[in-house]
Amino acid sequence: MAQDFEYLIMKNLKNYIAKNNLLKRNEMMTGKVDLHTHTTFSDGFYSPEELVIKAKQAGIEVLGISDHDNIAGILEATEIGKKIGVEVIPGVEISSDIKDREIHILAYFFEPENPELERYLSFFREERLKRAIRIVNKLRSIGFDLSIDDVLERALNSAVGRPHIAQALVDKGLISSYYEAFNKYIGNGCPAYEKKVHLSPQSAFKIISDAGGLSFIAHPGYMTESLLKELITAGVDGIEVIHPSHSPQLIKFYRGIVNEYFLLESGGSDFHGGKREDENNLGKYFVNSAVVEAMRQRLLKNSA
Predict the structure, then answer these.
(1) Residue 204 to residues 25, 135, 236, 237, Cα–Cα distance (Å)
(2) So what's the pLDDT on residue 276?
(3) N or C: which end of the chain has fewer CB within 10 A?
(4) 76-112 burial by CB neighbour count: b if 16+ within 10 A, else e?
(5) CATH number at residue 163
(6) Sign, CA torsion 153/81/106/38
């Protein structure tokens, strides 16, 4: 009994200290929060260090690094963030599908060293390479002089994806623009399209939760309301409300869904840089510190 009582005291004290730290941190935060950005460790144009510096210049106080299937850039970003006053939140964007429709899931605040999460991410990085090889072979079959080495030169050490293939096509002068690659050749339903290997949303949510993180539906503007509710039922923690593709009407709608189902909100610029021509989005699409505070409170409640 004495040990149980001591445990309860220590647990309550720990929660009290954590809550006070959250309140103090929240009081100090007055700038912008961007929870959706990409670096050269997936399909972004800037290195983690460069991205954090650009975020600081754009008035961003809290930055979520959410590379596709890759968390290798988080450490570098965190270190530079500490030096220049930008808090970096660990994030990742992973793919799933439901009813043959690809969906993207954002994860935040997970433990980066979690072995199951890293096993999953490693597997899907390998699958990304296999998919890229299949796409390149299809492109070659319809007349494009492109090799997988051309693509890997653009991807370097990042998780290889279709954006790297598009970039290689542009750089070699085989097409006129980045968007032509997707619209005509490698986008969904196009001649060189290849489907990804996915896991179910339920499995993705469990992996994220087991790693101590929170899961969010990324840029759901293309989804039907019934599909959105199916994902909510499957156990997602929240919805990305703010995104460049969301109109004011959609933002209001998703915020209503968040409140109705007691979900969390996230948001950001989905910034990539480079050929995406989205430089102006960094600092333009953001959420406030209350969104991050709500995430931390949920995590605190989950661990209680």
Answers:
(1) 30, 25, 9, 12
(2) 80
(3) N
(4) bbbebbeeeebbbbbbbbbbbebeeeebbbbbbbbeb
(5) 1.10.150.650
(6) negative
Q: What pLDDT, on a 0 to 100 scale, did the predictor assign at position 275?
A: 76
Whole-angstrom distance, CA of residue 282 vs CA of residue 52: 11
The pLDDT score that the predictor gives to residue 11 is: 47
Distance between CA 51 and CA 109 in Å, rounded? 19
- What pLDDT does residue 8 have? 45
Backbone angles phi, psi at 57, to 5 degrees: -65, -25
- Domain contains 140: yes
Bridge-based pairing of strands 101-108 and 87-98 is antiparallel
Residue 268's domain comprises 32-111+202-303
Q: What is the rounded distance in angstroms from the CA atom of residue 229 to the CA atom of residue 3?
A: 44
**Predicted pLDDT at 288:** 96
Low-confidence ranges of the chain (pLDDT < 70): 1-30
Report the predicted TM-score, pTM, of the whole model to 2 decimal places: 0.82
User: Are both 168 and 252 inside the same structural domain?
Assistant: no
